[in-house]
């Protein structure tokens, strides 16, 4: 099979007011991202044992192009969501097992 690694670089300053920043600082981001990928996207990836900022992707050698495209699409969606820094939406998606819609801000009544 294959072995691919994706390293997440950053620090708390990337998301200073977010749990994601704490996850980066405490080296918990890769397991958090892996949980999202499995529970929401249905794609199994794993954090590395000695590098808490790296996730492993270990597709089978016989993986088809359709399966590769599915993996790439899932990664693209996940990375786009994490880039927003919306911790609440990410956690709700993990808990519900499906992507959660972005909440629209409502103007204050007045």
What does this protein look like?
By secondary structure, the chain is mainly alpha-helical. Helix content is 45%, strand content 9%. The chain contains four helices and three strands. Helix 2 (29-41) packs across helix 3 and helix 2 (29-41) crosses helix 4 (87-96). It is globular, with a radius of gyration of 15 Å. It starts with a strand and ends in a 14-residue tail after the last helix.
What is this structure's SSE topology?
Layout (H helix, E strand, L loop, with lengths): L3 E4 L11 H7 L3 H13 L4 E2 L6 E4 L7 H20 L2 H10 L14
Antiparallel strand pairs: 1-3, 2-3
Helix pairs in contact: 2-3, 2-4
Proportion of beta-strand residues = 5-15%
Task: Determine the mean pLDDT.
Answer: 87
Topology as a string of helices (H) and strands (E):
EHHEEHH
How are the strands of the largest sheet arranged? Answer: 1-3-2
Unreliable residue runs: none
The major β-sheet equals: 3 strands, antiparallel
* Radius of gyration based on Cα positions: 15 Å
Number of helices: 4
- Termini Cα gap: 61 Å
Shape: globular
Number of strands: 3
- Fraction of residues in helices? 40-55%
Class derived from helix and strand content:
mainly alpha
């Amino acid at each position: 099979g294959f072995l691919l690694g994706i390293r997440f670089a950053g620090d708390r300053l990337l998301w200073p007011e977010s749990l994601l920043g704490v996850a980066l600082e405490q080296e918990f981001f890769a397991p958090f991202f892996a949980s999202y990928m499995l529970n929401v996207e249905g794609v199994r990836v794993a954090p590395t044992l000695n590098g808490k900022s790296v996730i492993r992707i270990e597709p089978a050698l016989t993986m088809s192009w359709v399966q590769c495209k599915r993996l790439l699409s899932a990664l693209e969606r996940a990375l786009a969501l994490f880039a927003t820094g919306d911790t609440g939406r990410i956690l709700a998606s993990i808990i519900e097992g499906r992507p959660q819609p972005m909440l629209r801000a409502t103007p204050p009544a007045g």
